[in-house]
Write a structure and sequence with these properties.
By secondary structure, this protein is of the alpha/beta class. It is built from ten helices and six strands. The chain has helices spanning 2-6, 10-13, 17-25, 40-46, 51-72, 91-114, 130-143, 159-176, 186-191, 238-249; strands at residues 32-36, 76-83, 118-122, 150-157, 203-206, 225-228. It has a six-stranded parallel β-sheet, sandwiched between helices. Helix 7 (130-143) links the parallel strand 3 and strand 4 (150-157).
Length: 264
């Protein structure tokens, strides 16, 4: 079933990457793509490497996909790099992942700046190690005026915690009397989430064959198109992203209504 969904169209198989990119650009490009980057551990295991080698390779995929997303004209790319549940992993693995933003931004910040990419982060910043906070803070500062792709790292992020935190802020405003309960609308809730400056994702990608949300952007994904692939994140390449965007371009988004002639 999953395999059927991801099979590349025959006419795409012989196209060069440049031809595919130019073809994809002719149709509607998702404004915001969110990715659950899964399968790093399995990628490493298949090669008899330690799990962290998979995370390191996955970091290189982030670079590749950021570049293409920016080139396609995607407005925002959110990547799930570390969830609030990932602290349960062995300390060595957690420590390694927490060093990756430093390595990624230390290595690629100049090219992100050159590509006009703006780096932002969502998640619980205060409980991240100091060195991770500092790497992200520096990159955010250095790219804050960039107007190209927004690269949003979901780091120490959990959607339920995000929603609970938004509710606490709103409840406080009601308690103080600066808001009435009837003013608590969907828009107001959205404005109190960590994504308040981003549009809702148009396309969600999850790699590695897992078909679940894992506490990721539960509110924001209400009308998002989902695309699942068995490809492991370190193997996810430009053609995979184009497959996902091509599939998105062939969806009929109805937002609960009817489209075209059906609605007359
Ligand atoms: C899930 O795969 C992946 C993660 C928990 C970490 C994701 C992190 C990266 C891809 C690198 C992030 C890069 C930067 C720049 C911060 P898994 O370990 O659960 O894989 P498995 O299911 O095969 O074990």
């Amino acid at each position: 079933m999953l395999h059927k969904l991801i099979r590349r169209k025959p006419e795409r198989q012989n196209q060069s990457l440049a031809e595919r990119i130019s073809h994809t650009k002719k149709d509607q490009i998702p404004e915001h793509i969110a990715i659950i980057m899964d399968g790093n551990g399995r990628w490493a295991k298949k090669r008899a490497l330690p799990r962290v080698a998979g995370h390191h390779e996955g970091m290189k995929t982030v670079r590749k996909i950021t570049r293409l997303a920016n080139d396609l004209g995607v407005g925002a790319l959110t990547v799930y790099a570390f969830s609030t549940e990932n602290w349960k992993r062995p300390k060595l693995e957690v420590d390694f992942i927490m060093r990756l933003p430093e390595e990624f931004l230390g290595t690629y910040l100049p090219e992100l700046i050159e590509q006009n990419v703006r780096v932002v982060m969502m998640g619980e910043n205060d409980t991240l190690p100091r060195h991770t906070q500092e790497a992200v803070r520096k990159a955010m500062e250095a790219t804050k005026n960039n107007t190209g792709l927004i690269l949003n790292f979901a780091l120490n992020y959990g959607s339920r915690a995000e929603i609970a935190q938004a509710m606490q802020k709103i409840a406080q405003l009601v308690e103080e009397g600066s808001l009435s309960s009837s003013e608590v609308t969907e828009d107001l809730i959205s404005q109190h989430l960590m994504t308040c400056e981003l549009p809702e994702p148009d396309l969600l990608i999850r790699t590695s064959g897992e078909v679940r949300l894992s506490n990721f952007m539960l509110w924001q994904l209400a009308y998002t198109e989902f695309w699942f692939t068995e490809t492991l994140w370190p193997d996810f390449d430009e053609n995979c992203l184009l497959d996902a965007v091509d599939s998105y371009q062939n969806r009929n988004r109805r937002y609960g209504g009817l489209k075209g002639e059906e609605s007359n």
